[in-house]
Specification:
The chain is of the alpha/beta class. It has one domain: Alpha-Beta Barrel (TIM Barrel). Helix content is 43%, strand content 16%. It has twelve helices and eleven strands. The chain has an eight-stranded parallel beta barrel with strand order 1-2-3-4-7-8-9-11, surrounded by six helices. Strand 8, helix 7 and strand 9 form a beta-alpha-beta unit. Helix 1 crosses helix 2 and helix 3 crosses helix 5. The protein starts with a strand and ends in an 8-residue tail after the last helix.
């Protein structure tokens, strides 16, 4: 049995809309939410990028049952690990037992804004390991000082802590990062639809830890309408690798999209109104080792997607005995 979640896209929606979407997601039966943590959207057309910790405060008050996580925060440059530890502890105290902290090595798009050099991926991974150690130490609630390879902490103590500390999950897109995630985190978050990342995570000691996988979808009344929506609101789907992590601004992503021409939509993106397509994608991700699967509905029509999920997709999933009861 898998648990289904919903992606809150900070790049596409205003903060109050994100909070409303979180409420609707809980109401229709999603078990968890992951909210993206960006300083910039991917392209100017998306038009948003609110401060995630403020939005999480609103979500804490507007929801009651659903689990919530950052998907994901980079605690190594734009946020110092000390501030990440404090912010996450506060949100966890506001929604007891419902928050988990998703962390990753970030993208240049968001992390270069303070003028710091952009390290190579191996260095960013080392920084993430050190950052997580600092966060866990600070969550002990004692005064803490530290001088390491990348960070210095002086006389820091977090006074507002939840009764139960949140788990830390780490994002991975390749086998090496998946192995690291298994060693330093309580669970895996990935946007890779194949089984390589999960296999590496399990082999490195993560077989008993939660594994979160994402499916990009665009519900619409027709496949053609869904295709046009994805091309308009998420034209960066085919940009990957170093280009994805190293471009500095939404304008640069826009330039790449323009150079590509007509954006090619990845084959694993689910388009249109047929619930069986969604079912097959969820089954494929489960087969590849994910036990938590979250859906990112691209575009402005979130309300239509929620209606589709509740009336068409969820009954099909329950019939196939794929998911836990929704409420």
């Amino acid at each position: 049995m898998i648990k289904l979640g919903y992606a809150l896209s900070s790049e596409e929606h205003e903060p109050n809309i994100l909070i409303t979407n979180a409420q609707m997601a809980e109401r229709v039966g999603f078990k968890f939410l992951l909210i993206s943590d960006h300083f910039h959207p991917w392209v100017p057309q998306q038009g948003n990028s609110p401060f995630v910790w403020s939005v999480l405060g609103g979500i804490a008050q507007a929801t009651q049952r659903v689990l919530v996580s950052t998907g994901v925060t980079c605690p190594i440059l734009r946020f110092h690990p000390v501030l990440t530890a404090q912010a996450a502890a506060t949100v966890a105290a506001m929604m007891p037992g419902r928050f988990f902290l998703g962390l990753g090595t970030g993208e240049y798009l968001n992390e270069h804004i303070l003028g710091q050099p952009w390290p190579r991926i191996e260095t960013r991974q080392e920084m993430l390991v050190e950052a997580i150690d600092i966060i866990r130490e600070l969550w002990k609630g004692e005064e803490y000082s530290y001088e390491g390879s990348y960070y210095t902490v002086r006389d820091a103590r977090i006074y507002t802590l939840p009764e139960k500390l949140p788990p830390i999950y780490v994002a991975a897109s390749g086998e090496e990062s998946a192995e690291m995630a298994a060693e330093i985190s309580d669970g895996l978050i990935s946007t890779s639809s194949g089984d390589e990342v999960v296999k590496a995570f399990k082999k490195a000691g993560g077989s008993e830890k939660p594994r979160y996988g994402m499916i990009k979808v665009c519900w619409a009344y027709s496949q053609e309408e869904a295709k046009n929506t994805v091309k308009r609101w998420w034209p960066t789907s085919t940009i990957s690798g170093s280009l994805h992590s190293d471009l500095p601004t939404p304008r640069h992503f826009d330039d790449v999209v323009e150079a590509i021409g007509d954006p090619k939509i990845p084959e694993d993106t689910i388009l249109g109104p047929n619930p069986n397509s969604y079912l097959k994608a969820i089954q494929a991700l489960e087969k590849n080792g994910y036990d938590h699967i979250y859906l990112h509905q691209i575009g402005p029509d979130q309300e239509g997607f929620f209606k589709f999920f509740k009336t068409e997709l969820m009954p099909l999933l329950e019939k196939e005995e794929l998911v836990l009861e929704t409420i």
